[in-house]
């Protein structure tokens, strides 16, 4: 406190000392007039006192996120006194994660700590879409592939995966766990993933498949096809040894092979049974194999395959590596099996009886009826 002795009516001009670092003038009391740091006492006729009040400087905290719709950021205090601090917390919107936070003195996850503040501060948080993995899987790389546009995708985004069969195979569908969206414009081989919000796996199934023209006994060649399931994931066709061929010169007793035979070779098979389904150009009555009917057979012969089912133009049977039907009778991952669809010779040679049309039958009925009435009149 400063004490001064002045004559009655004397004016006095008092100027306050500069504020310490981090402080600023808050108010004067006891002045007749004050401006900024100046306090004026005038016309003094009695003892007077003046009080100068100082306060800590206040600084502003600004906080923002980028992009603006990716979340928010809140601070415990937006105005901080000199030397003090506050905490700001980032709140990402659904599907977003923090890429970085700038303007902090220290960080812990989503929390930004400001301490010992000596000026205005700006806290900025950059958020990015959460990324998810897209895993493409196939039943066998020998049979086909599955290509996705990307193996990493942002929250809520969409992508497609496309299956492609290798020669000697066909695509049969996506796995039940594959979250493929229905799309009117998507091909069956395309899996559309929409509004992705988690890691996803897409599984494409393939199977060995062969389609070609037959070599018929008579008439023109026609398309037939064969599909194969089982035998392990790597069981596949050797296309260099798979073809529709002509029927042998010697056929099973009383049977014909109007569509010739399918001579196929599977490789990479395990010991599990393989189901073979062949769609012939026309209806058939049976199917026979040509090969060794037993492991110690010295010559080939005709015999019926295992689990044979005939339905219209389709024949289905099973064959197993190293077992009956595998021509080499060796457990070596290779199945060789020539087969032919049969039709009884009598049925194949039968000549259809001509039939009368509906109008001709009706006319004949009228004639017969007329003759019958005439006979009654004659009686």
From TrEMBL:
Residues 62-126, 151-207 form the Bacterial repeat domain. Residues 352-377 form the IPTL-CTERM protein sorting domain. It comes from the Bacteria. The keyword Membrane applies. Keywords: Membrane, Signal, Transmembrane, Transmembrane helix. The keyword Membrane applies. Residues 1-16 form the signal peptide. InterPro entries: Bacterial_rp_domain, Choice_anch_U_dom, IPTL_CTERM. The chain crosses the membrane at residues 356-376. This is IPTL-CTERM sorting domain-containing protein.
């Amino acid at each position: 406190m400063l004490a001064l002795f002045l004559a009655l009516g004397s004016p006095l001009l008092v100027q306050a000392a500069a504020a310490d670092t981090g402080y600023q003038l808050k108010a004067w009391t006891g002045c007749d007039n004050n401006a900024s740091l100046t306090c004026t006492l005038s016309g003094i006729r009695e003892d007077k006192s003046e009080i100068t009040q100082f306060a800590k400087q206040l600084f502003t905290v600004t906080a923002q996120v980028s992009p603006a719709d990716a979340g928010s950021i809140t601070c415990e205090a937006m105005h901080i006194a000199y030397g003090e601090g506050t905490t700001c917390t980032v709140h990402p919107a659904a599907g977003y994660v923090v890429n970085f936070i700038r303007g902090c003195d220290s960080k812990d996850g989503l929390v930004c700590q400001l301490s010992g503040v000596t000026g205005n501060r700006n806290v900025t948080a950059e958020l990015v879409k959460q990324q998810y993995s897209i895993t493409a899987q196939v039943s066998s790389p020998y049979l086909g592939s599955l290509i996705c546009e990307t193996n990493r995708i942002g929250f809520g985004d969409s992508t497609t995966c496309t299956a492609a069969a290798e020669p000697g195979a066909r695509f049969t569908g996506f796995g039940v766990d594959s979250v493929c969206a229905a799309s009117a414009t998507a091909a069956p081989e395309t899996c559309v993933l929409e509004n992705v919000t988690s890691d996803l796996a897409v599984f494409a199934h393939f199977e060995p498949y062969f389609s070609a023209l037959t070599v018929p006994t008579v008439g023109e060649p026609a398309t037939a096809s064969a599909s194969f399931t089982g035998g392990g994931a790597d069981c596949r066709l050797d296309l260099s040894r798979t073809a529709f061929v002509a029927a042998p010169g010697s056929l099973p007793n009383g049977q014909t092979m109007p569509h010739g035979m399918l001579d196929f070779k599977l490789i990479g098979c395990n010991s599990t049974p393989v189901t073979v389904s062949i769609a012939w150009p026309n209806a058939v009555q049976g199917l026979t194999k040509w090969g060794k009917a037993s492991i110690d057979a010295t010559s080939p012969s005709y015999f019926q395959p295992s689990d044979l089912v005939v339905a219209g133009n389709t024949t289905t049977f099973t064959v197993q590596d190293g077992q009956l039907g595998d021509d080499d009778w060796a457990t070596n991952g290779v199945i060789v099996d020539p087969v032919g669809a049969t039709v009884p010779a009598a049925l194949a040679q039968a000549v259809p009886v001509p039939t009368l049309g509906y109008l001709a039958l009706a006319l004949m009925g009228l004639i017969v009826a007329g003759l019958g009435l005439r006979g009654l009149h004659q009686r």
